[in-house]
Amino acid sequence: MGDADQAEIERDDYVLASDEFLTSELIGEDVTDANGEEVGEVEDVLLASGNMQPMLVIRDGFAGDLHTVSFDQAEIWFDEEGEPEARMDLTEDMLDDLQEFEQEGLNDYRLASELTGTNVRLGFNDKDVRVTDMIMKTDGTAKYAVVSNGIVDAVTDERFLINPAKIVVSQGDSEGEMMIDLSEEEFTNAMSFTADID
To answer: How many domains does the structure of the chain reveal?
Structure first.
C-alpha cells in the first residue's frame, strides 16, 4: 500500500473511555497503600499471558525491590488532570512480604515497557510499525497496542490501534522477532489515535 493510498484512508479517531489509560502515563507514578501512604512507584505493567493475570510491577520505596500486585489488589483512579494513579489495598508491610519480581529474560515482551518502542513486522507486507504505547482498562485488560505506521512516523502524533492479541512471535527461523498477524484490510480499518508527544 503506497503513501498516497494511506493518505486517502478515512479512519475513525479513538477517544479514551473513562476507565482507560495509557501505560506510559501510569509508569513512574507514585503508589499509595491502604493507609494512604506513598510506598513506591509503578515500575511497569505485566501484561496478561496464558494463565497469568495482568499485574502492576511496584518498586518498593526508592530503588527498592520489585513486587507484582494484581489489579484485584489495587485501584487505578484518575487525578484532577485525568492522569492515572495507583492505590493498593495492601499495606507497606504486606507489599514487603510479597515475592520479589524477577524478569525471566531480556525482552520477553511480558512487560508493557518492553513492548513499547519495539519495531514489529506487519504480516501482510513485511513492513515495520513501532509500538509506541498501550491502552489498558483499569481492570488490567490490555485493549489496544498503539502503533505508528513506520519508524519515521513515530515522531508524529498520528497513531493506529491494534488488538494486542494480534502481536505474536514470528514462526520458523525467527529469533524471537515479533509480528502483527493482521490482514491488509484489518490494518486499513484500524482506528486512529492522536498521541500526545509533547
So the answer is: 2
| 9, part of any domain | no
E strand map for the chain: 20-22, 30-32, 38-46, 55-60, 66-70, 74-78, 84-88, 119-122, 128-137, 142-148, 158-162, 167-169, 178-180, 192-194
Grid cell at residue 141: 485488560
Residue 103 CA: distances (Å) to CA of 43, 57, 100, 109, 113: 12, 11, 10, 10, 12
93, 149: one domain: no
Q: 136, 45 in Cβ contact below 8 A?
A: yes
**pLDDT > 90: percent of the chain:** 56
Buried b (16+ CB within 10 A) or exposed e, 83-105: ebbbebebebebbeebeebeeee
Q: In what order do the strands lie in the sheet with 55-60?
A: 66-70, 55-60, 38-46, 30-32, 84-88, 74-78
Higher-pLDDT residue of 152 and 53 is: 53
For 67-102, write each residue's pLDDT tens digit.
Answer: 999 999 999 999 999 999 999 999 989 998 888 998
All three cell numbers of 182:
493482521
Q: What is the CATH number of the domain that holds 70?
A: 2.30.30.240
Indicate whether 103 belongs to any domain.
Answer: no
End residue of a domain, out of 36, 66, 97: 97
Q: Is residue 105 part of a domain?
A: no
